[in-house]
Design a protein that fits this description.
Blueprint (H helix, E strand, L loop, with lengths): L11 E8 L5 H11 L3 E4 L4 H7 L14 H11 L7 H11 L5 H5 L5 H25 L4 E6 L1 H9 L3 E9 L2 H9 L17 H16 L8 E5 H6 L1 H11 L14 E4 L15 E4 L6 H4 L2 H17 L6
Parallel strand pairs: 1-3, 1-4, 2-3, 4-5
Antiparallel strand pairs: 6-7
The protein binds zinc ion (ZN).
Protein name: Sulfotransferase family protein
InterPro entries: Gal/GlcNAc/GalNAc_ST, P-loop_NTPase
Pfam family, one: Sulfotransfer_3
Length: about 325
């Protein structure tokens, strides 16, 4: 794969999809990538563990080590992935990038061992982003890492033009999705992680509040509700891509209630990242019939401040 090299001075534009898991970020990111002619790399925070170390499937349905795109990125960034210790990088990620580390990232200067680890991780990831920009030749990278710690890491990197789109989905659908047992087509039928309803509801609030706090910074931020994307995909994609500096999107892949997905090289994310072709575009409302009344009420009471904030009716 060849492309025009990006000049070292040119900032790399990154559209970061932030928010809570099970909010539809894989589908939305792929749609943003396709419409904006951007490179959709999926949840890049899992690159080291799932891609380089475990050689799992890329979105293109090839093993990471057999995907020409990612091999070219490794060559561009490091002269080959073999020149970086992937296990060490995955461990470094685990030690500084989890949601429990959020407060540490906000401390000014972050000195000491934590600060040194964050700087090393940021320097290494900056090379990865530059490699992606070089190899793809795309005007923008869509990163659906979602975690606020990943967005804060991007803010540390020089030469990055970061834009954040906060993706919110109503909490009942999110909590229900976290409780379902789903086999992963992209990982040989292994089960997707599940969370208890209280944990999923609490994290919905925390992740969304943390991503929304970027409104208080100079980083451009916009909101996208998953339900609005499903109802009005053309206008919502156009709005977000204009915000991201890519006006006049090509939304020819949108049909009447469908979306025609191209091949992406997303390194991690929802199992639907390996699906291509025409798929239905609909809000998953299974929770309305499958969720018990008491649990629905618990979710509403727990997440009411966020529901009101993002325009979800409490009844
Ligand atoms: Zn690939």
């Amino acid at each position: 794969m060849t492309a025009e090299p990006t000049s070292p001075q040119q900032p790399i534009r990154i559209l970061f999809v932030g928010g809570h898991g099970r909010s539809g970020s894989t589908l939305v990111s792929r749609a943003l990538g396709a419409a904006g002619k951007a490179s959709c790399v999926g949840e890049l925070r899992y690159l080291w563990k799932q891609g380089v170390a475990k050689n799992q499937l890329c979105g293109c349905n090839r093993r990471f080590a057999r995907c020409a795109f990612w091999q070219d990125v490794g060559d561009a960034a490091f002269g080959g992935w073999r020149n970086v210790d992937a296990i060490e990088m995955a461990g470094l990620h685990q030690s500084v990038m989890r949601i429990r580390h959020l407060a540490h990232h906000l401390l000014p200067g972050s000195t000491g061992a934590f600060g040194r680890r964050v700087r090393l991780y940021a320097e290494t990831m900056a090379k990865v982003y530059r490699g992606i920009a070089e190899v793809s030749g795309s005007p923008m990278i869509v990163d659906s890492s979602k975690f606020p710690t990943s967005a804060l890491l991007l803010r540390r990197m020089p030469g990055i033009d970061l834009r954040i789109v906060q993706l919110v989905r109503g909490p009942h659908g999110v909590v229900h999705s976290w409780s379902r047992t789903v086999q992963r087509a992209d990982k040989g039928g292994r089960l997707m992680a599940t969370h208890s309803p209280t944990r999923a509801a609490a994290e919905w609030l925390v992740f969304n509040a943390a991503i929304e706090s970027f409104r208080l910074t100079r980083t451009p931020w916009t909101l996208l509700r998953y339900e609005d994307f499903v109802a009005r995909p053309h206008s919502e994609l156009s709005r977000v891509l204009e915000f991201a500096g890519s006006p006049s999107p090509d939304t020819g892949f949108l049909g009447d209630g469908t979306i025609d997905l191209p091949v992406d090289h997303s390194v991690a994310g929802n199992p639907m990242r390996i699906r291509t072709g025409v798929v239905p575009l609909r809000a998953d409302e299974e929770w309305r019939t499958a969720m018990r009344r008491a649990r629905r009420r618990m979710v509403t009471v727990f997440t009411a401040p966020g529901m009101l904030r993002y325009g979800y009716p409490l009844r």
